Amino acid sequence: MRHGSIPGVHGRVRPLRLLGDPVLHAPCEEVTEFGPELAALVEDLFATMYAAHGVGLAANQIGEPLRVFVYDCPDDEDVRHLGHVVNPRLVEAGGVELRGPEGCLSLPGLEAGTERYDEAVVEGFTADGERVRVRGTGFFARCLQHECDHLEGGVYADRLTGWRRRRVLRQAAKAPWARRETAPRPEAV
Ligand SMILES: [Zn+2]
Q: Which family does this protein fall into (predicted)?
């Protein structure tokens, strides 16, 4: 984002893809064209993230299988981090591993204690093709790891084990937004 512009103001709020949608469960492709379409995608990501009150959003969550994510996320010291990364690579993840509450706009309303490293460094590019390096700690480090997972085709539920995993998958299956193969409900017929 250029200095002075408000991210997302030119963007379009797009429908969120939800758990079970194939685009969320496959690795995204590298961005090779740094042009106006990419800038528009970043704007749509910001607009959609803000509309959904999220702190981060990956491109496949709006159905675009490209390696891009945006964030507007506080860390544990309440410092705000705002930006986007194209073709991000998680180059460092370290410090202590902490289990903390984690949610996702693709599993709306759900949350589970998920283990993440307390420090993370992501390298990549801006939509203008400039190199960028983003370092996060605490909740922002969690966000960076979460978004990088999305671009690999992962969601936080994939990182859970045991009862935590069973519980969140059970809740997801019962959620109003769950993808169902069954016939429409009687009142809808
Ligand atoms: Zn997510």
A: Belongs to the polypeptide deformylase family.
